[in-house]
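Sequence, please.
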């Protein structure tokens, strides 16, 4: 344990604990980031995905290394789930030269093209046209790659979402649209934003297959993603998965969440994705408790090492501002 390398081909060479371990890594990373930002040790702006780990891991665990993902301003978990190096991720948030984007991306614009991570994006809904474009390139180049767009339910009210989804539908592109419906679009209860509740029912207008999935159940997310990816690879895409989940923290770090009923948050915390998967593994006999404890410890140690290395890493050289810039 503790390598946290890119997920293998779906279903190949995985221990029963590996998926849990990846969720534990994301949880430890996000808790560390939350504390570091609170203490003014990270620059920029930070949005964490605590409580949504099962969506990221369930989806990315069923993708191939060459498949694409495009994510959001809340994208740390998606990148780690797809195999981004935890040291490079943390260094990027510290704006260090050893970061995945050499310190130029930060929390909301981190990317890792070598692992198919097209990047996080501060523009609401921008992940959708990016993923559709990647899917089109896969089709034109006959690469067999699936492209995944992660986005929140608030993004579904953006024009770019509808334009991109319509294009993907009429061209049968290999895109899996993953809506993380965490009940709040920034500070607004999503139920107040549209007459039709939920996102999946709205996809009928585009002729797109859509499914609601328990976003706190990593097994349910993995099963749904495997089926959706197979549909896309066989020319029957796109597919939308609406992952019903909940973000524990506010829209951004420091948001006091006055718009959320306290009892609502308590109810969702009882469905902690890590606790649910731990219970499943123990009940099925797939893993003894000591293996899960080791996974938690390994994840925590990996994040602590990443923080220590990021603190000591150099800042980018001034010339870095001119590197990787296309005019």
């Amino acid at each position: 344990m503790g390598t946290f390398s890119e997920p293998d081909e779906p279903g190949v060479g995985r221990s029963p604990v590996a998926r849990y371990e990846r969720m534990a890594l994301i949880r430890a990373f996000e808790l560390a980031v939350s504390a570091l930002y609170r203490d003014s040790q990270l620059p920029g702006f930070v949005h964490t995905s605590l409580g949504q780990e099962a969506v990221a891991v369930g989806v990315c665990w069923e993708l191939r290394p060459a498949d694409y993902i495009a994510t959001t301003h809340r994208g740390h978990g998606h990148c780690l789930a797809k195999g981004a190096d935890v040291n490079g991720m943390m260094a990027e948030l510290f704006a260090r030269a050893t970061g995945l984007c050499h310190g130029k991306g930060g929390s909301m614009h981190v990317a890792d093209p070598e692992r198919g991570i097209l990047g996080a994006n501060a523009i609401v809904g921008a992940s959708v046209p990016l993923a559709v474009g990647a899917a089109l390139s896969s089709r034109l180049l006959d690469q067999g790659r699936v492209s995944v767009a992660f986005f929140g339910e608030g993004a579904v009210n953006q024009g770019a979402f509808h334009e991109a989804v319509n294009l993907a539908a009429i061209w049968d592109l290999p895109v899996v649209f993953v809506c993380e419906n965490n009940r709040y679009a920034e500070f607004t209860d999503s139920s107040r934003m549209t007459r039709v509740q939920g996102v999946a029912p709205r996809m009928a207008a585009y002729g797109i297959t859509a499914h609601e999935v328990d976003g706190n159940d990593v097994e349910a997310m993995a099963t749904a993603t495997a089926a959706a990816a197979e549909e896309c690879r066989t020319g029957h895409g796109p597919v939308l998965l609406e992952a019903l989940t909940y973000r524990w923290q506010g829209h951004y770090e420091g948001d006091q969440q006055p718009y959320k009923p306290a009892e609502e948050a308590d109810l969702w915390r009882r469905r902690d994705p890590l606790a649910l998967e731990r219970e499943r593994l123990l009940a099925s006999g797939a893993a003894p408790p000591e293996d899960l404890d080791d996974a938690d410890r390994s994840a925590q140690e990996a994040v602590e090492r990443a923080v220590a290395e990021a603190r000591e890493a150099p800042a980018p050289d001034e010339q870095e501002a001119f590197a990787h810039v296309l005019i």
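Residues 18-322 form a domain with the Rossmann fold fold (CATH 3.40.50.970).
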